[in-house]
Amino acid sequence: xxxIELHEVSLEIxxxxxxxxxxxxxxxxxxxxxxxxxxxxxxxLLRLMCLLAKxxxxxxxxxxxxxxxxxxxxxxxxxxxxxPAAMEHRSGIDNLRYLARIRGLISDEDxxxxxxxxxxxxxxxxxxxxxxxxxxxxxxxxxxxxxxQDVLLLDEPFNALDRDGVSQVKTLLQQRVSDGSTLVxxxxxxxxxxxxxxxxxLVEGGTVSRI
Length: 211
Ligand SMILES: Nc1ncnc2c1ncn2[C@@H]1O[C@H](COP(=O)(O)OP(=O)(O)OP(=O)(O)O)[C@@H](O)[C@H]1O
Description:
Helices cover 31% and strands 27% of the residues. It has six helices and nine strands; from the N terminus they run E-E-E-H-E-E-H-H-H-E-H-E-H-E-E. Helix 2 (92-103) crosses helix 3 (108-117).
């Protein structure tokens, strides 16, 4: 079964064709890598997959089990696209608490555990604006995974992480996938792709091909 399918998807923004006739499938429980040069359209593909962007033509299909009426973002999707985003004047834990309240699925203890898992101090009152890029990335990944999201769409998940961070996050992602979750990630590094991905697509010249 596929969790996401793109059929003949094209996307134009202000008459500029950015993606053309893209066919791509994300099987449930697999790790899928999107590779390609800067500006090739990898982030746009992630936006299409979580329904944040609408195709100009073609169809994006998300498994019914993950759709809920009245919601833009499919259920159970954990997403980091175009770098980490947070309320900069609030602490890390306040950011995660704010997001956790939306669905009410996890407790404060869960949030603290996830912060520890990503090497962040839940007791710190430091506002996110004072975080390093790597800390912001860790917070974004914690947000994407803390509610047990079973479909992870992660743009360059290892960006800005130190060596230990890369290895911790790889282990967490591998665990999630071996527990049945689905992962789509972008990367510029062949090593990450061969280590993590069950399948990979090359995004080039507005088209996508399996590699
Ligand atoms: N909102 C937008 N309006 C106009 N053009 C856009 C918009 N978003 C993306 N683009 C263009 O679409 C193309 C693909 O962008 P995208 O961010 O998907 O690339 P990418 O493969 O993720 O690049 P990178 O590796 O640098 O992150 C780029 O040429 C970009 O300028």
